[in-house]
Amino acid sequence: MQHLNTGALALYHGKAAVINAINKDKIDIRIEGGSVKSVRPKDIEVIHPGPVASLPPAAPKEPDFAEILELTEGETLPFGEFVELAYGGNTAGAAWAAVQALADGTYFTGSPAAGVTGRNPEEVAAALAAQRAKAAEKAAREALLERIRNGAVTPDDRTSLREIEQVAFGKAPSSKLLRDLGMEATPEKAHALLLKLGVWDNQVDPWPARFDVAPDNPAIPLGPLPEEKRADLTGMVSYAIDDEGSNDPDDAIGFADGLVWVHVADPAAVVTPDSPADLEARERGENLYLPERISHMLPPEATDIFGLGLRETSPAMSFGIRITPEGEAVLEKIELSTIRAERLTYESAAAHWEEEPLASLRAELERFKEKRRAEGALFIQLPEVKIRVVDGEVEIFPCAITRERELVANAMLAAGSAVAKYAEAHDIALPFVVQPPPEIEERGTSFTDMYALRKACAPSVVQTVAGKHSGLGLEPYVRVTSPLRRYADLLAHQQLRRHLKGEELFTSDELEARLFTSEAAALTRRKLERSANEFWTLVYLDQHPEWSGEAILAFRQDDRLTFVIPELAYEFKNRFGGRIALGETVKVTLSAVDLAASAARLRIG
Predict the structure, then answer these.
(1) Is residue 520 over pLDDT 60?
(2) Mapped to the 3 state alphabet, what secondary structure does 553-565 carry?
(3) How far is residue 489 from each of residues 267, 537, 596, measured CA to CA in Å?
(4) Distance of alpha carbon 581 from alpha carbon 561, whole angstroms
(5) How far is CA 358 from the centre of its chain?
(6) Is residue 339 classed as helix, strand or coil in its secondary structure?
(7) pLDDT interval class at 576 (50, 70, 90)
(8) pTM of the full predicted structure?
(9) DSSP letters along 366-406, please?
(10) Buried b vs exposed e over 301-335: b needs ≥16 C-beta within 10 Å?
(11) Distance CA 564, CA 447 (A)
(12) Beta 585-594 vs 599-604: how paired, if at all?
């Protein structure tokens, strides 16, 4: 039983304490740091009778523990004898120092109550080696922190900096290095530090990792084309018209017997419901188009087989559409087909503008377009660009709304309108696309009117209940022309194939379950595309530090102004308004680019 007296030095949860008063069943103690507690006798361990002058007591000089170890020769000593032997006297300071030596455990183990025993040479050697390693690690860490603070990291530091990269990629919520540097562990702060250190340059796009989207392509083999009856439409002149450089042509247009023909790639022939390729496509939702790469929804093999115009003939699902005198699109034929398509760019299609089939398509689709206009379709014309990274250099190309581009777009919309009405008439559940009307009355044609109109538009929604797509002026409407690129289109094709073959159709609930997964994935990819496009636009500006151009004041809210740079389709905010009128064009000059903060500083005037 330990002896308790006032002024004695005790241990309380590893801290030094002095006994102030002894009551019947409680002891009042003062702990190092100044706090006072009332505790039970068993809660403390007395290590010296005192008196104690300070907490913790001043410790004497550390002895040569290796020499003391030899003197004890493995004997277990009472704690007091050990203190006398090691420190030459049993003072409160010596007792406290002995307790610290036992806590360290390099040479001796034990406690004031159980006594002290020396460790064997092998244990001592291992403990000393561990201490040296820990000291070396600490010194290396301090040296690394100093190099980071001085901006003088070396290539050998790259491995140690990966924890900061994980924060910048949004993969880790914290970093010991950032904490030791006194920095907040946010992706933006980590990104800025990596740029400052030269560990990252402006070619490292963090957004795919932040959205947790793998940039790879599926590696799932596709089976052979099934033996099935296909209509031979190879005698029809059909054009697959796309942007320069497009590598996944999944639609083509033609005209025959008074019908507008829209031929669509037929990957649903081999990507059957719930097959490995279908499940993978569902998890992806749609193709991912980044300026530096494309990540496909389907294995690249699908494009090689089904891309229209990539081979002499192509398997397709073809829609024969009659445009009524009133401009309605009516589906008269739907069939699995074999077509021959010639690939054109929008620019090269201009040379065929007055020729067939484009001449007839123009007249038919113009009626369809005017019908959409009468139904309230929104024809929003705002700057659009395509961004491409070639050998590290960013290229930005404007996407002009040309007559050729508009012709193809209207053909695709006519197919979506005609198929949707056909599905309603035949009770076929499909992934219909609906959009409520914008909450805005003004429908002007100025730049600011267009900007406000787009801002007022709610996102479209894919659902199995048909409704109106107000932005397109179509009711109902379904997307069916991009099954190589969008899962909802592929799902529509799988359903239409079942209908054509007289098989049991997907129920609305079955379609909804598939769309729940695919649309969530597609939304993530679209958000990623927007972030990546903004990032590479900023890289473009970073690569052109002398850039200057024109911007239009598109939106004003109090003193917060939103400008649009048409040639870059880039928006930026500024509080400098002066006397700039809404819709006015001003000259802007680049001042600086902050990639980590996703911002460019532009000087107006």
Answers:
(1) yes
(2) EEEEECCEEEEEE
(3) 11, 30, 36
(4) 11
(5) 42
(6) strand
(7) confident
(8) 0.84
(9) HHHHHHHHHTT--------EEEEEETTEEEEEE----HHHH
(10) bbbebbbbbbeebbbbbbbbbbbeeebbbebeebe
(11) 10
(12) antiparallel
